[in-house]
Amino acid sequence: MEKMSGNNIPEKTIERLSEYRRTLLNLHKQGITHIFSHVLAGMHGITAVQVRRDLMLIGFSSDTKKGYDVEELIDFINRILDSSEPMNIAVIGMGHLGQAITRYFNNKGLNLKIVAAFDVDPAKVGTTIEDIPCYSMDDFETDVASLGIDIAVLSCPSRVAAELVVPIVNAGIKGVLNFTSKPLNFPLGIVVENYDITTLLEKVAYFVKENNEDNNEL
Amino acid sequence: MEKMSGNNIPEKTIERLSEYRRTLLNLHKQGITHIFSHVLAGMHGITAVQVRRDLMLIGFSSDTKKGYDVEELIDFINRILDSSEPMNIAVIGMGHLGQAITRYFNNKGLNLKIVAAFDVDPAKVGTTIEDIPCYSMDDFETDVASLGIDIAVLSCPSRVAAELVVPIVNAGIKGVLNFTSKPLNFPLGIVVENYDITTLLEKVAYFVKENNEDNNEL
Protein backbone atom coordinates (compact mmCIF):
# COMPACT_ATOMS: atom_id res chain seq x y z
CA MET A 1 0.00 0.00 0.00
CA GLU A 2 1.57 3.29 -1.06
CA LYS A 3 -0.18 6.23 0.48
CA MET A 4 0.54 9.90 0.31
CA SER A 5 -1.19 12.30 2.61
CA GLY A 6 -2.72 15.62 1.58
CA ASN A 7 0.40 17.19 3.10
CA ASN A 8 2.49 15.08 0.71
CA ILE A 9 4.16 13.30 3.60
CA PRO A 10 5.06 9.75 2.57
CA GLU A 11 3.72 6.84 4.56
CA LYS A 12 7.19 5.79 5.76
CA THR A 13 7.82 9.26 7.17
CA ILE A 14 4.52 9.10 9.06
CA GLU A 15 5.66 5.77 10.56
CA ARG A 16 8.99 7.24 11.59
CA LEU A 17 7.37 10.36 13.07
CA SER A 18 5.27 8.08 15.27
CA GLU A 19 8.44 6.26 16.32
CA TYR A 20 10.43 9.46 16.94
CA ARG A 21 7.61 10.80 19.08
CA ARG A 22 7.54 7.68 21.23
CA THR A 23 11.28 7.97 21.82
CA LEU A 24 11.06 11.71 22.48
CA LEU A 25 8.26 11.23 25.01
CA ASN A 26 10.47 8.76 26.84
CA LEU A 27 13.42 11.14 26.82
CA HIS A 28 11.18 13.95 28.04
CA LYS A 29 10.01 11.77 30.92
CA GLN A 30 13.66 11.26 31.84
CA GLY A 31 14.21 15.02 31.94
CA ILE A 32 16.22 15.22 28.71
CA THR A 33 15.59 18.58 27.02
CA HIS A 34 17.67 18.40 23.81
CA ILE A 35 18.77 15.75 21.34
CA PHE A 36 21.04 15.76 18.29
CA SER A 37 19.74 14.30 15.04
CA HIS A 38 22.47 11.65 14.97
CA VAL A 39 21.55 10.50 18.50
CA LEU A 40 17.86 10.23 17.63
CA ALA A 41 18.89 8.44 14.43
CA GLY A 42 21.10 5.98 16.31
CA MET A 43 18.24 5.10 18.66
CA HIS A 44 16.22 4.04 15.62
CA GLY A 45 18.99 2.36 13.65
CA ILE A 46 18.82 4.89 10.81
CA THR A 47 21.01 7.74 9.54
CA ALA A 48 20.99 11.35 10.75
CA VAL A 49 20.31 12.38 7.15
CA GLN A 50 17.04 10.41 7.25
CA VAL A 51 15.96 12.09 10.49
CA ARG A 52 16.78 15.55 9.16
CA ARG A 53 14.98 14.84 5.88
CA ASP A 54 11.85 13.68 7.73
CA LEU A 55 11.80 16.77 9.96
CA MET A 56 12.41 19.04 6.98
CA LEU A 57 9.43 17.46 5.25
CA ILE A 58 7.15 18.48 8.10
CA GLY A 59 8.74 21.95 8.25
CA PHE A 60 10.55 21.55 11.57
CA SER A 61 13.81 23.45 11.41
CA SER A 62 14.66 24.78 14.86
CA ASP A 63 17.93 22.94 15.29
CA THR A 64 20.01 24.58 18.03
CA LYS A 65 23.62 24.13 19.10
CA LYS A 66 22.32 21.65 21.67
CA GLY A 67 20.31 19.77 19.04
CA TYR A 68 16.53 19.67 18.76
CA ASP A 69 14.40 20.94 21.64
CA VAL A 70 12.64 17.72 22.71
CA GLU A 71 9.43 19.32 23.94
CA GLU A 72 9.13 21.58 20.91
CA LEU A 73 9.63 18.67 18.54
CA ILE A 74 7.01 16.56 20.36
CA ASP A 75 4.51 19.43 20.04
CA PHE A 76 5.36 19.79 16.38
CA ILE A 77 4.85 16.08 15.65
CA ASN A 78 1.61 16.13 17.67
CA ARG A 79 0.26 18.83 15.37
CA ILE A 80 1.10 16.72 12.30
CA LEU A 81 -0.10 13.33 13.50
CA ASP A 82 -2.96 14.01 15.89
CA SER A 83 -6.45 15.16 15.15
CA SER A 84 -7.94 17.82 17.42
CA GLU A 85 -10.31 15.31 19.05
CA PRO A 86 -9.11 11.90 20.29
CA MET A 87 -10.11 9.13 17.89
CA ASN A 88 -12.25 6.31 19.20
CA ILE A 89 -11.20 2.77 18.47
CA ALA A 90 -13.00 -0.55 18.64
CA VAL A 91 -11.18 -3.87 18.86
CA ILE A 92 -13.03 -6.65 17.07
CA GLY A 93 -12.20 -10.06 18.48
CA MET A 94 -11.10 -10.32 22.10
CA GLY A 95 -8.91 -13.40 21.93
CA HIS A 96 -5.29 -13.23 23.04
CA LEU A 97 -4.34 -10.75 20.33
CA GLY A 98 -7.27 -8.45 21.01
CA GLN A 99 -6.53 -8.52 24.73
CA ALA A 100 -2.82 -7.88 24.12
CA ILE A 101 -3.65 -4.86 21.94
CA THR A 102 -6.13 -3.49 24.43
CA ARG A 103 -3.79 -3.89 27.39
CA TYR A 104 -1.05 -2.36 25.32
CA PHE A 105 -2.90 0.83 24.43
CA ASN A 106 -4.76 1.42 27.64
CA ASN A 107 -3.41 4.28 29.70
CA LYS A 108 -0.71 5.08 27.16
CA GLY A 109 -1.93 8.67 27.05
CA LEU A 110 -2.31 8.51 23.29
CA ASN A 111 -4.67 10.57 21.22
CA LEU A 112 -6.24 7.21 20.34
CA LYS A 113 -8.71 5.68 22.74
CA ILE A 114 -10.03 2.13 22.73
CA VAL A 115 -13.62 2.60 23.79
CA ALA A 116 -15.17 -0.74 22.88
CA ALA A 117 -14.47 -4.37 22.19
CA PHE A 118 -16.66 -6.66 20.12
CA ASP A 119 -16.84 -10.42 20.28
CA VAL A 120 -19.26 -13.24 19.47
CA ASP A 121 -18.46 -15.22 22.63
CA PRO A 122 -21.41 -14.95 25.07
CA ALA A 123 -18.96 -15.44 27.94
CA LYS A 124 -17.21 -12.18 26.98
CA VAL A 125 -20.15 -10.03 25.85
CA GLY A 126 -21.43 -7.80 28.65
CA THR A 127 -18.19 -8.03 30.65
CA THR A 128 -15.27 -5.63 30.67
CA ILE A 129 -11.83 -6.80 29.50
CA GLU A 130 -8.91 -4.60 30.50
CA ASP A 131 -11.55 -2.04 31.57
CA ILE A 132 -13.06 -1.97 28.08
CA PRO A 133 -16.72 -3.00 27.74
CA CYS A 134 -17.26 -5.92 25.40
CA TYR A 135 -20.26 -5.69 23.08
CA SER A 136 -21.98 -8.35 20.99
CA MET A 137 -21.45 -8.38 17.22
CA ASP A 138 -25.28 -8.59 16.91
CA ASP A 139 -25.73 -4.83 17.30
CA PHE A 140 -22.39 -3.87 15.78
CA GLU A 141 -23.57 -1.15 13.42
CA THR A 142 -25.77 0.69 15.90
CA ASP A 143 -23.23 0.38 18.74
CA VAL A 144 -20.41 1.73 16.56
CA ALA A 145 -22.54 4.70 15.55
CA SER A 146 -23.68 5.52 19.08
CA LEU A 147 -20.13 5.20 20.47
CA GLY A 148 -18.69 7.41 17.71
CA ILE A 149 -16.04 4.91 16.67
CA ASP A 150 -13.60 6.04 13.98
CA ILE A 151 -11.21 3.09 13.68
CA ALA A 152 -11.62 -0.69 13.93
CA VAL A 153 -8.78 -3.03 14.85
CA LEU A 154 -9.43 -6.55 13.55
CA SER A 155 -8.02 -9.25 15.79
CA CYS A 156 -10.69 -11.83 15.01
CA PRO A 157 -10.05 -15.23 13.38
CA SER A 158 -8.98 -14.80 9.74
CA ARG A 159 -11.80 -16.98 8.44
CA VAL A 160 -14.45 -14.45 9.55
CA ALA A 161 -12.57 -11.29 8.52
CA ALA A 162 -14.21 -10.96 5.09
CA GLU A 163 -17.68 -10.98 6.66
CA LEU A 164 -16.82 -7.80 8.55
CA VAL A 165 -16.29 -5.58 5.50
CA VAL A 166 -19.96 -4.70 4.93
CA PRO A 167 -20.80 -4.06 8.61
CA ILE A 168 -17.68 -1.87 8.92
CA VAL A 169 -18.66 0.19 5.87
CA ASN A 170 -22.28 0.46 7.02
CA ALA A 171 -21.24 1.53 10.50
CA GLY A 172 -19.34 4.50 9.08
CA ILE A 173 -15.89 3.42 10.27
CA LYS A 174 -13.13 5.42 8.56
CA GLY A 175 -10.02 3.35 9.23
CA VAL A 176 -9.20 -0.33 9.67
CA LEU A 177 -6.09 -1.97 11.06
CA ASN A 178 -6.38 -5.59 10.00
CA PHE A 179 -4.20 -8.11 11.85
CA THR A 180 -5.86 -11.18 10.31
CA SER A 181 -4.17 -13.12 7.52
CA LYS A 182 -7.00 -12.22 5.12
CA PRO A 183 -6.15 -9.00 3.25
CA LEU A 184 -9.27 -6.84 2.98
CA ASN A 185 -10.28 -4.18 0.48
CA PHE A 186 -12.56 -1.28 1.38
CA PRO A 187 -14.24 1.42 -0.70
CA LEU A 188 -12.31 4.64 -1.33
CA GLY A 189 -12.39 6.91 1.70
CA ILE A 190 -11.79 4.09 4.19
CA VAL A 191 -8.14 3.69 5.16
CA VAL A 192 -7.00 0.11 5.57
CA GLU A 193 -3.72 -1.26 6.79
CA ASN A 194 -3.45 -5.02 6.35
CA TYR A 195 -0.80 -6.35 8.67
CA ASP A 196 -0.37 -10.05 8.97
CA ILE A 197 2.42 -10.81 11.43
CA THR A 198 3.35 -13.84 9.31
CA THR A 199 4.72 -11.39 6.74
CA LEU A 200 7.00 -9.77 9.30
CA LEU A 201 8.30 -13.11 10.48
CA GLU A 202 8.82 -14.43 6.95
CA LYS A 203 10.70 -11.26 6.08
CA VAL A 204 13.06 -11.61 9.05
CA ALA A 205 13.56 -15.29 8.14
CA TYR A 206 14.36 -14.38 4.53
CA PHE A 207 17.06 -11.87 5.51
CA VAL A 208 18.54 -14.34 8.02
CA LYS A 209 18.72 -16.92 5.23
CA GLU A 210 20.38 -14.38 2.91
CA ASN A 211 22.96 -13.49 5.60
CA ASN A 212 23.72 -17.17 6.11
CA GLU A 213 24.23 -17.68 2.40
CA ASP A 214 26.50 -14.63 2.17
CA ASN A 215 28.61 -16.02 5.01
CA ASN A 216 28.86 -19.43 3.37
CA GLU A 217 30.23 -17.79 0.26
CA LEU A 218 33.12 -16.17 2.15
CA MET B 1 15.01 0.17 7.84
CA GLU B 2 15.88 -0.23 4.18
CA LYS B 3 17.23 -3.65 3.41
CA MET B 4 18.30 -5.20 0.18
CA SER B 5 18.93 -8.88 -0.10
CA GLY B 6 21.90 -10.45 -1.85
CA ASN B 7 19.46 -11.20 -4.65
CA ASN B 8 18.76 -7.45 -4.86
CA ILE B 9 15.14 -8.00 -4.00
CA PRO B 10 13.76 -4.98 -2.11
CA GLU B 11 12.27 -5.47 1.32
CA LYS B 12 8.78 -4.43 0.17
CA THR B 13 8.83 -7.08 -2.55
CA ILE B 14 9.77 -9.71 0.02
CA GLU B 15 6.76 -8.62 2.09
CA ARG B 16 4.46 -8.86 -0.90
CA LEU B 17 5.83 -12.27 -1.93
CA SER B 18 4.96 -13.54 1.54
CA GLU B 19 1.47 -12.10 1.12
CA TYR B 20 1.00 -13.48 -2.41
CA ARG B 21 2.05 -16.92 -1.23
CA ARG B 22 -0.48 -16.90 1.60
CA THR B 23 -3.24 -16.00 -0.86
CA LEU B 24 -2.04 -18.58 -3.41
CA LEU B 25 -1.95 -21.33 -0.77
CA ASN B 26 -5.56 -20.50 0.06
CA LEU B 27 -6.59 -20.58 -3.59
CA HIS B 28 -4.75 -23.87 -4.05
CA LYS B 29 -6.64 -25.35 -1.11
CA GLN B 30 -9.87 -24.33 -2.83
CA GLY B 31 -8.83 -26.17 -5.99
CA ILE B 32 -8.07 -23.07 -8.04
CA THR B 33 -5.25 -23.83 -10.50
CA HIS B 34 -4.69 -20.49 -12.31
CA ILE B 35 -4.91 -16.81 -11.52
CA PHE B 36 -4.49 -13.63 -13.55
CA SER B 37 -2.13 -10.93 -12.27
CA HIS B 38 -4.97 -8.40 -12.01
CA VAL B 39 -7.03 -10.79 -9.89
CA LEU B 40 -4.12 -11.46 -7.53
CA ALA B 41 -3.48 -7.70 -7.47
CA GLY B 42 -7.12 -6.93 -6.64
CA MET B 43 -7.03 -9.36 -3.72
CA HIS B 44 -4.17 -7.31 -2.25
CA GLY B 45 -5.45 -3.85 -3.11
CA ILE B 46 -2.54 -3.13 -5.48
CA THR B 47 -2.10 -2.81 -9.26
CA ALA B 48 -1.42 -5.65 -11.69
CA VAL B 49 1.72 -3.77 -12.77
CA GLN B 50 3.06 -4.10 -9.22
CA VAL B 51 2.39 -7.85 -9.15
CA ARG B 52 4.05 -8.37 -12.53
CA ARG B 53 7.03 -6.24 -11.51
CA ASP B 54 7.51 -8.25 -8.31
CA LEU B 55 7.35 -11.56 -10.15
CA MET B 56 9.70 -10.31 -12.84
CA LEU B 57 12.19 -9.35 -10.12
CA ILE B 58 12.31 -12.93 -8.89
CA GLY B 59 12.50 -14.25 -12.46
CA PHE B 60 9.04 -15.81 -12.64
CA SER B 61 7.70 -15.40 -16.14
CA SER B 62 5.49 -18.36 -17.00
CA ASP B 63 2.31 -16.43 -17.57
CA THR B 64 -0.18 -18.51 -19.56
CA LYS B 65 -3.44 -17.65 -21.29
CA LYS B 66 -5.16 -18.79 -18.10
CA GLY B 67 -2.91 -16.62 -15.94
CA TYR B 68 -0.24 -17.83 -13.54
CA ASP B 69 -0.12 -21.52 -12.60
CA VAL B 70 -0.90 -21.31 -8.86
CA GLU B 71 1.11 -24.35 -7.81
CA GLU B 72 4.11 -23.38 -9.91
CA LEU B 73 4.13 -19.86 -8.51
CA ILE B 74 3.90 -21.17 -4.93
CA ASP B 75 6.91 -23.42 -5.58
CA PHE B 76 8.79 -20.53 -7.10
CA ILE B 77 8.14 -18.22 -4.14
CA ASN B 78 9.05 -21.06 -1.74
CA ARG B 79 12.47 -21.28 -3.37
CA ILE B 80 13.02 -17.53 -2.91
CA LEU B 81 11.72 -17.12 0.62
CA ASP B 82 12.40 -20.41 2.36
CA SER B 83 15.66 -21.85 3.57
CA SER B 84 16.25 -25.54 2.96
CA GLU B 85 15.82 -26.38 6.66
CA PRO B 86 12.89 -25.03 8.71
CA MET B 87 13.98 -22.16 10.96
CA ASN B 88 13.49 -22.49 14.68
CA ILE B 89 11.84 -19.65 16.53
CA ALA B 90 11.64 -18.74 20.19
CA VAL B 91 8.97 -16.44 21.59
CA ILE B 92 10.24 -14.37 24.50
CA GLY B 93 7.45 -13.30 26.81
CA MET B 94 4.32 -15.42 27.02
CA GLY B 95 1.76 -12.81 27.93
CA HIS B 96 -1.30 -12.29 25.74
CA LEU B 97 0.75 -11.18 22.74
CA GLY B 98 3.19 -14.09 23.00
CA GLN B 99 0.34 -16.54 23.30
CA ALA B 100 -1.50 -14.96 20.39
CA ILE B 101 1.60 -15.23 18.20
CA THR B 102 2.24 -18.82 19.23
CA ARG B 103 -1.34 -19.91 18.64
CA TYR B 104 -1.27 -18.08 15.36
CA PHE B 105 1.78 -19.84 13.95
CA ASN B 106 1.24 -23.29 15.32
CA ASN B 107 0.18 -25.82 12.73
CA LYS B 108 0.28 -23.28 9.93
CA GLY B 109 2.57 -25.57 7.95
CA LEU B 110 5.12 -22.80 7.57
CA ASN B 111 8.83 -23.27 7.11
CA LEU B 112 9.11 -21.45 10.45
CA LYS B 113 8.64 -23.42 13.62
CA ILE B 114 8.13 -22.07 17.12
CA VAL B 115 10.05 -24.53 19.25
CA ALA B 116 10.34 -22.70 22.55
CA ALA B 117 8.87 -19.99 24.70
CA PHE B 118 10.75 -18.09 27.40
CA ASP B 119 9.28 -16.30 30.37
CA VAL B 120 10.29 -15.15 33.84
CA ASP B 121 6.98 -16.16 35.45
CA PRO B 122 7.53 -19.31 37.60
CA ALA B 123 3.88 -20.23 36.99
CA LYS B 124 4.61 -20.54 33.25
CA VAL B 125 8.13 -21.99 33.24
CA GLY B 126 8.11 -25.77 32.92
CA THR B 127 4.58 -25.88 31.46
CA THR B 128 3.57 -25.99 27.82
CA ILE B 129 1.54 -23.15 26.32
CA GLU B 130 -0.16 -23.89 23.03
CA ASP B 131 1.93 -27.09 22.96
CA ILE B 132 5.17 -25.12 23.17
CA PRO B 133 7.44 -25.77 26.18
CA CYS B 134 8.11 -22.66 28.25
CA TYR B 135 11.67 -22.24 29.53
CA SER B 136 13.09 -19.96 32.19
CA MET B 137 15.10 -16.91 31.15
CA ASP B 138 17.78 -18.06 33.62
CA ASP B 139 19.30 -20.53 31.15
CA PHE B 140 18.41 -18.57 28.04
CA GLU B 141 21.77 -18.69 26.27
CA THR B 142 22.40 -22.41 26.75
CA ASP B 143 18.79 -23.37 25.96
CA VAL B 144 18.79 -21.31 22.75
CA ALA B 145 22.03 -22.97 21.64
CA SER B 146 20.89 -26.52 22.43
CA LEU B 147 17.51 -25.99 20.73
CA GLY B 148 19.17 -24.51 17.62
CA ILE B 149 17.06 -21.36 17.62
CA ASP B 150 17.56 -18.96 14.70
CA ILE B 151 15.00 -16.23 15.35
CA ALA B 152 13.63 -14.58 18.50
CA VAL B 153 10.22 -12.91 18.66
CA LEU B 154 10.07 -10.33 21.46
CA SER B 155 6.66 -10.03 23.05
CA CYS B 156 7.91 -9.14 26.51
CA PRO B 157 7.18 -5.87 28.35
CA SER B 158 8.92 -2.92 26.61
CA ARG B 159 10.79 -1.92 29.77
CA VAL B 160 12.85 -5.15 29.77
CA ALA B 161 13.49 -5.29 26.00
CA ALA B 162 16.89 -3.54 26.11
CA GLU B 163 18.21 -6.09 28.62
CA LEU B 164 17.69 -8.84 26.06
CA VAL B 165 20.13 -7.52 23.45
CA VAL B 166 23.29 -9.00 24.99
CA PRO B 167 21.79 -12.44 25.76
CA ILE B 168 20.37 -12.60 22.22
CA VAL B 169 23.76 -11.77 20.70
CA ASN B 170 25.57 -14.22 22.99
CA ALA B 171 23.10 -16.98 22.23
CA GLY B 172 23.89 -16.74 18.52
CA ILE B 173 20.40 -15.70 17.40
CA LYS B 174 20.42 -14.40 13.81
CA GLY B 175 17.11 -12.56 13.53
CA VAL B 176 14.83 -10.62 15.86
CA LEU B 177 11.23 -9.57 15.42
CA ASN B 178 10.67 -6.97 18.12
CA PHE B 179 7.05 -6.16 19.01
CA THR B 180 7.90 -4.04 22.06
CA SER B 181 7.77 -0.24 21.89
CA LYS B 182 11.52 -0.04 22.53
CA PRO B 183 13.42 0.01 19.20
CA LEU B 184 16.53 -2.18 19.48
CA ASN B 185 19.84 -2.11 17.62
CA PHE B 186 21.94 -5.22 17.07
CA PRO B 187 25.42 -5.75 15.67
CA LEU B 188 25.80 -6.22 11.93
CA GLY B 189 24.85 -9.74 10.88
CA ILE B 190 21.76 -9.87 13.08
CA VAL B 191 18.55 -8.94 11.29
CA VAL B 192 16.13 -6.90 13.34
CA GLU B 193 12.61 -5.80 12.55
CA ASN B 194 11.22 -3.37 15.13
CA TYR B 195 7.48 -3.37 14.91
CA ASP B 196 5.53 -1.46 17.47
CA ILE B 197 1.82 -1.80 16.76
CA THR B 198 1.33 1.76 18.03
CA THR B 199 3.01 2.93 14.83
CA LEU B 200 0.51 1.06 12.69
CA LEU B 201 -2.43 2.45 14.60
CA GLU B 202 -1.08 6.00 14.57
CA LYS B 203 -0.53 5.71 10.83
CA VAL B 204 -4.11 4.61 10.20
CA ALA B 205 -5.33 7.44 12.46
CA TYR B 206 -3.22 9.97 10.55
CA PHE B 207 -4.65 8.98 7.17
CA VAL B 208 -8.20 8.98 8.59
CA LYS B 209 -7.59 12.52 9.85
CA GLU B 210 -6.23 13.56 6.44
CA ASN B 211 -9.27 12.08 4.69
CA ASN B 212 -11.57 13.94 7.06
CA GLU B 213 -9.78 17.21 6.38
CA ASP B 214 -9.92 16.64 2.62
CA ASN B 215 -13.67 16.08 2.89
CA ASN B 216 -14.15 19.23 4.95
CA GLU B 217 -12.43 21.24 2.23
CA LEU B 218 -14.88 20.07 -0.45
From TrEMBL, chains A, B:
DNA-binding region: 19-58
Domain CoA-binding: residue ranges: 83-183
UniProt key word Transcription: yes
The protein's name in its UniProt record: Redox-sensing transcriptional repressor Rex
Superkingdom, taxonomy of origin: Bacteria
Family classification: Belongs to the transcriptional regulatory Rex family.
Species whose genome carries this gene: Candidatus Tidjanibacter faecipullorum
GO molecular function: DNA binding; DNA-binding transcription factor activity
One BP term from GO: response to redox state
